[in-house]
Amino acid sequence: MNWNMKKINSLLAIMIVAIPAFSQEPEMADAMRSEGKIYVVVAILLLILGGLVAYLVTLDRKVTRLEKKLEENRHS
Amino acid sequence: MKKSWWKILAVVLLVYTIVGGLLLDVPRLMIVNESIRALYFHVPMWFGMVLMYLISVIYAIKYLRRNDPEADIASAGFAHTGLVFGFLGILTGMIWANYTWGTPWHGDPKQNGAAIATLIYLAYFILRGSLENQEQRARLSAVYAIFAFAAMIPLIFIIPRLSSSMHPGSGGNPGFNMYDLDSTMRRVFYPAVVGWILLGIWIASVRIRLINVEEKIHELEYEKNK
Q1: From the CA of B13, how many Å to the nearest CA of chain A?
Q2: Is the residue at B116 inside a domain?
Q3: pLDDT digit string (tens) for A28-49?
């Protein structure tokens, strides 16, 4: 009897511990969003993207200039 | 400016990817948590890589049919950009795996397959670099590009699905669309894929044009020295 009680008690204990583990919400960066700090990250990433794209545009234009120069040289 | 509408589209889509990818809602899941947003950046690297390699193989076939040296240069240029995407995909995957799987290199079939495919394409450039004769280099590397592409597809898309890969959609794992029932992530994911692919085509086109200019300068010099 006593042994059975112990068994049930420990089973109950496990269930009580396990229930919150199952119903727990996955942890997300909600605080970071509500504080508005996420905009800092967005701004930094946009700046890096903008910088790299601007660099690519200058490279693109440089190649266009070279192509034109080469065409002129060919015809002269 | 008229011809470059797709470059502007690429930039608009990438700006949207960053803003929407970080600010819009995502499914709340255990283990991946907020890192699920890496999907918008890690997976488009693979889409980009596969498309670059596909364009490369199309130009390789075009070279073999027409013997056009510019098709050879285009084929190499797209393979080169694909390789950059592949490395970025592997490295971003390693960062993500470190936090979700516990170790950067898990020996996951998809990881190994991607690494082997990247090595196959590295060998493509070793082959190109080791041949002096332009025609021989173009022909051999065009044939190699076809074999490399044919090896890459099963390594990345078929073998991980047959074995026990931890990637979503592989080895009996549900794909991401299983968790994303209300399609919140698709609103960012598909534009992200298109944006990254267009950026890849842009980078490849600049590289190809540059090498074409280089080749023409060589030709001019050769004619002058005759």
Answers
A1: 11
A2: yes
A3: 989 888 898 999 999 999 999 9
Number of domains in chain B: 1
In chain B, which residues have their Cβ closer than 8 Å to the Cβ of A67? 209, 213
Query: Would you list the DSSP string of B58-77?
Result: HHHHHHHHH--HHHHHHHHH
Q: Tell me whether residue B130 is in a domain.
A: yes
Total residues found in chain A within this entry: 76
| Interface ipTM | 0.87
pLDDT tens digit sequence for B153-173: 999 988 888 887 888 877 666
Q: Is residue B179 part of a domain?
A: yes
Q: A63 to chain B: which residues are within 8 Å by CB?
A: 206, 209-210, 213
Q: Which of A26, A63, A67 sits opposite B33 (nearest CB)?
A: A26
Q: Which residues contact B127 (CB under 8 A, 6 or more apart)?
A: B137, B140, B141, B144
Give the residue numbers spanning the domain of B211: 42-183+203-225
Closest-approach residue (CA) in chain B for A64: B209
Contacts 24+ apart (CB under 8 A), A1-9: none
